[in-house]
Design goal:
The complex is a heterodimer of chains A (409) and B (383). Chain A is α+β, with helices and mostly antiparallel strands and 409 residues long. Chain A has 15 helices and 12 strands. In chain A, the strands form 3 sheets. In chain A, strands 5-6-1-7-8 form a 5-stranded mixed sheet. In chain A, strands 9-12-10-11 form a 4-stranded antiparallel sheet. In chain A, strand 5 and strand 6 form a beta hairpin. Chain B is α+β, with helices and mostly antiparallel strands and 383 residues long. Chain B contains 6 helices and 25 strands. The chains are: A alpha+beta (409), B alpha+beta (383). At the A-B interface, strand 11, helix 13 and helix 14 of A face loops of B.
Amino acid sequence: MARIIMHLDMDSYFASVEQQATLSLRGRPIGVTGKPHEHSIIVAASREAKRYGVKSGMASWEARHLCPSLTLVSGKAERYIAITKRFLSILKRYTPLLEVFSIDEVFMDVTHEAARYGGPVSMARLIKDEFHEALGRYITCTIGIASNKAFAKLIAKRHKPDGIGKLRDEEIPSLLEKIPVAEVCGIGRRIEMRLTKVGIHTLGDLGRAPGWYLKQEFGVYGLFLKEIGQGRDPTPVVPYTTVASVKSVGHSKSLPPRLRSFDLALLVLRGLCDKVGRRMRKLGYVGRTVYFGFRLGSIGPHYGKQITLPFSTDDGETIYNACLATRQKMAIHTPSISQVSVSVRNLSEKRCLPAYLLEEDQRRERLNNAIDRIRDRFGESAIITGETLLFKAIPEHVGGFSQGEEWEF
Amino acid sequence: MEFMCMKKDLVFGVKLASYALGSRSGMPILSGLKMETKGNRLHISTTDLERAIRCEIPIENNVNDETAVLNGTVLSQIAAHLPQDEKITIRTDSQDGTVVKLRCGEAMFDLPTLPAEDYPKIPSLPEKKIAVIETKRFHNSLDQTAFSSLKAAETTRLSLTGVDIVLKDNALKMIATNGYRLALKKLEAKEVLEEGEYLIEASVLTDLDRVLSQLEADTVELYKGEGQLFFQASGTTFMAKTIAEEFPDFDRVIPKENQISLVFDRHALLDALQRIEITAAEESGAVVFRATDEESAVQINSSSKDKGEAAERVRLKKVPSGTIEISFKAEYLIEVLKRMASTEIALWLSATDKAGLVEPYGDKLAAEDEGFLYVCMPVRSSS
């Protein structure tokens, strides 16, 4: 029996959530950023802004240039997470085979449920209606239906916004010839370049390429490419319930061009580590492995290294020191760091650790607890480290919605 | 360079020196073993910059006092597999000294030398002798403390990777901690000539201990260097770099008013813990002790999600003076019980969230356990 896979993708998600929330933003071109300043990056553009060519990932000055009437809105992560939780609770009633792919994308295997709703298309229509009721008129989604994940996603993309696209298996062969390889989720720039070099441009080309060649060139991934090229994608929908709640806690931050010095990056990093520690303490977790990563230049490569500490920690400064230790391992001294990120993995519950024996550790724990209590009561910025204060003193320069942020649902 | 020596002497010297061979990829010269002929003695030295060993062996027919650096690993392997022959001859082969010939019976090796001028200078033995201790006691003390240090390839807290050596009042204290437990041993010294505190990496001291065990010397002398501590016994010198960090204030973490004592037969507790640890939760390794002031026994439990549960009643030598429930990481108790020798031990407790103190107990206290105590923090509330 052929599978019926749905790919549900929210349209201009963050932007439409903002428009739904604020009357004055409706019908206007808006761009959601970290902070509404010159150097921040657009993380989502409303459909009105997209008409001017504004795209996510664009610097806001560039977006302004394309669309002078653009309104910049600061992103509010909590708000989007709340809406995502709301629509996921609706979808869970339709099928248990639900894979949360990102904050605004979901895969569903509805092979067994579709018939009950009069087929996948009317099922999709029902879902959209229910979204309309629960989320509001401005928050819309597009649903792609196919017999596998990759093509459900492809067909959804072709029916944006606010659409329903169904791809029948008979239509796949002719479609393959039209779709460039880069359009498939998972085929990045570098793989695209390697394929283009040997004359593979469309999915059709990919399907005709000899399997042994793809295998030799890309390993196991080559076999996946071959399948995709023939219109197949055997990847299953991994149910949302099997995804562990928290595997890591991390934050990242983009640096505006004027401030891409190593010292500033470290300053920002210090603040991020503090935030990570705070969140871990809220969750009651400690972690042993600290990952520190950074990006060079605006589109440059991402470097990162991890270090496993002798004992788990939830202390921002310990995490920061661990980052510094990985930095020594990398031995990269570059002026053009455009993004820093830190995450703590290898998590366990704090109550599993013995209590601290040494006064210095006990003092730090008491300090962190006191800071947490102050922040719980007076807000996150009520008390910050000296380094972070330096970094907060120049907020007009620092923007960028924390893209590397990891979501929990 | 040209001399002859007894096989057993060279094997002995090379083996001793190999404990300080370096392996850092950035400095290949540290993989070298330095040989210097001086009259009828051969000086052998190695260093990885953290530690250094210098020893000497007797030689014959020395033609000239010279120096050569050979690959230490290769030499160790050769020393371990030499044929049944009494004597070895070593001779520089080429004019420029780049190859050394080693001959033992019918076996011949041509060994390339490393540039002797690149070999780091090892500080010489300082004049200031600060203490003399018995090697047997030192060995025993190190065994009872070093295991408590932080064992880590990567850490931001160097001070915890060390064993702190405190010389005071004609005694030596050795202390090690990983931040959750601490071992302290006080041993009498033969002499303390100058008081002081030295922090040395546990693994370096363990190597020193191995060297000392080869030497069969009764005592070892301590010398104070600049940023190093030197140990000398039977003509062999071991240099250990001190860690330039402050060791935590150990005295304040030792509980002084723990009222509840649980007195166990050491073997009985050790056996029980090794059983109960099997089903301890993976993440915490915790076992729960429950004692009441009504019964001379402790109930020890563990449970984990996937491995199951265990419970055992372990007899006490007397009824405890209070009621308590407390969790410990089983490993932390097992490790210390294994390293003690007394028949009876006491676990002194005060509260569920306060440190426990392990000490040898009773009149039949083993000599090895004298001056030993161990502090262990409980696992945070398992509720």
